[in-house]
Amino acid sequence: MTERRAYIVGGGLAGLAAATALLEKGVPVTLAEAAPQAGGRCRSFFDRQLGCDIDNGNHLVLSGNTDVASYLQRIGARDTVEILAPVFPFRDVSSGESWSIKLSDGRIPWRLLCPHHGIPGVRFRDYWHSRRILKATSSETVADVLSETGQLYSHFWKPFAVAVLNTEPETAAAALLKPVIEETLLKGGSACRPVMAKRGLGFSFVEPALDYLQGNGADVRLGVRCRQINSSHGRVSSIDLEGDVIDIGENDIVISALPPPVVTNLLADIPAPQDFRSIVNVHFRLDGEVQGSSIIGIIGGVAEWLFLRGDIASVTISAAEHLVADAADEIAERVWRDVAPILTCDPEVLPPVRVIKEKRATFAQTPENLRLRPPYATKLRNLWLAGDWTDTGLPATIEGAIRSGHQSAALALNK
Ligand SMILES: Cc1cc2nc3c(=O)[nH]c(=O)nc-3n(C[C@H](O)[C@H](O)[C@H](O)COP(=O)(O)OP(=O)(O)OC[C@H]3O[C@@H](n4cnc5c(N)ncnc54)[C@H](O)[C@@H]3O)c2cc1C
Questions:
Q1: Ligand 1 atom nearest 361 alpha carbon
Q2: Atom of ligand 1 nearest to the CA of 32
Q3: How far are the Cα atoms of 67, 86, 107, 115, 248 from residue 187, in angstroms, in the given order?
Q4: 318-344 mean pLDDT
Q5: pLDDT tens digits, residue range 162-196?
Q6: Which phi and psi angles does 44 have, rounded to 5°?
Q7: Whole-angstrom distance, CA of residue 375 vs CA of residue 393
Q8: Whose CA is nearest to atom 49 of ligand 1?
Q9: Of the residues 56, 59, 408, which should be mutated to test ligand 1's pocket, given the most ligand atoms within 8 Å of the CB?
């Protein structure tokens, strides 16, 4: 029997997770990524305007993300991340009010109920009413289920849901929050510690994976587009990698870790969500370094989350359709007015800044689109799908992308 090889097309985190998982099990791997660099929507690059490395966007990952943890372990990158305390300071920039959500380590975050560790103005019954989220039906939105929870909605559920689902709560699928709550919040503080890349996303999630692949003999092709996936007799028979047509053997594995529009172009009969939501990130280079890393939730302004690392203060605005068409300098000024007081800086003096608009940051995570997420297995017996938009059961996140890569690799191995 000829040796079995795995061909992975798409070098975002889903593709990297599938490739490293298969290689770990001894399957030789070819990985083709169209862009000159791997990482897809999760990457770092040197920004000339700021004169330093930045990420395309802040990414919040939590210690309860088990597939992220096993991926980092496999590629030898656990030391490249910092695990912060499960404390989330918030600031309401319209009222000046501030509070912190501090989670205790037990399974039920009792501390939230204590006035000094919770959200001001929230009553016990708001928490009690929130339990409906765990029973949300597949057609309900976040607003349908949670908007009756008073101050808890405006001060926690809404910013949490927008950050996790990158979709406005009035149309976001409530059912998608359930697995996130079960895997993090309901496990208590130990599962809710923010996991921050010490230097940047690329240095934690991408470069070590490429080193792992190349160090273990994988054939990694960057800047190589998959042009065609051909099939016959119920299986993939060949793939075209930028003109190099490769025959796929009977025992070979093909994993597509491509974005939805590319998959529907290359493959017939695969359902896929085709509408997306944007994320705007604004990176400011400060005069001096801040101590340690931290994340601050912001409500009542344009900015939503402020990430601090070294001398970079970086702001994320999710589901940013209301903002994305505006001029970059206008966005930067509005965001700086929100965050300058938090950083004790002058709101009139704009520091060096870079605005990044990711127009297709994730698919719109609505009840209608959840029905269009395809399973990992396809009608072709040697082709599996991966990607944050496939039917992972999770939102379109790093955890979802990596889990899809792990699961499609496991299914392919067990075939
Ligand atoms: C600004 C921003 C902020 C985010 N914030 C968070 C967050 O806080 N927390 C979180 O968990 N997640 C966050 N996400 C989501 C997270 O980045 C994604 O879920 C994850 O990176 C998706 O990985 P993927 O491999 O599924 O897809 P992608 O990263 O899209 O990978 C697909 C890859 O396929 C390649 N490709 C396309 N066509 C071809 C072809 N024909 N041949 C070969 N290769 C091809 C692409 O170049 C790309 O590299 C954020 C995303 C963005 C954009």
A1: 53
A2: 43
A3: 16, 12, 4, 21, 44
A4: 97
A5: 999 999 999 999 999 999 999 999 999 999 999 99
A6: -120, 155
A7: 10
A8: 40
A9: 59
Residue nearest to atom 35 of ligand 1 (CA): 10
Burial class (CB in 10 A: 0-12, 13-18, 19+), 237: middle
Q: Using a 6 Å CB cutoff, which residues line ligand 1?
A: 9-15, 32-35, 40-42, 56-61, 225-226, 257-259, 262, 279, 281, 358, 361-362, 387-388, 396-399, 401
- Of 295, 276, 307, 280, nearest in space to 369 by CA: 276
* Residue 396, both tokens: 């379109």
Element (H or E) spanning 38, and its range? none
**Amino acid sitting at position 359:** K
CA of 196 to the centre of ligand 1 (A): 18
Instruction: Give the per-residue pLDDT at 121.
Output: 85
Question: pLDDT tens digits, residue range 101-127?
Answer: 888 876 655 555 555 557 888 888 888
Q: Which amino acid is at 180?
A: V
Q: Which of 166, 398, 404, 408 to mutate to test the pocket of ligand 1 (most atoms within 8 A of CB)?
A: 398
Return the ligand 1 atom nearest residue 16 CA.
Answer: 25
Closest-CA residue to 72 (of 85, 88, 61, 57): 61
Nearest CA to ligand 1 atom 34: 10
* 267-290 pLDDT, tens digit each: 999 999 999 999 999 999 999 887
Q: How many CB atoms lie within 10 A of CB 347?
A: 13
Which residue has its alpha carbon closest to ligand 1 atom 2? 57
Q: How far is the CA of 249 from the centre of ligand 1 (A)?
A: 29
Structure pTM? 0.96
| 12 φ, ψ (degrees, to nearest 5) | -80, -165
Collapsing DSSP to helix, strand or coil, 233 comes out as coil
Query: Tokens 């900015």 map to which residue?
Result: 303
Q: 142-163 burial string, b = 16+ CB within 10 Å, else e?
A: bbbbbeebeebbbbbbbbbbbb
Give dist(CA 302, CA 371) in Å, integer. 32
* C-alpha distance across the termini of the chain, in Å: 16
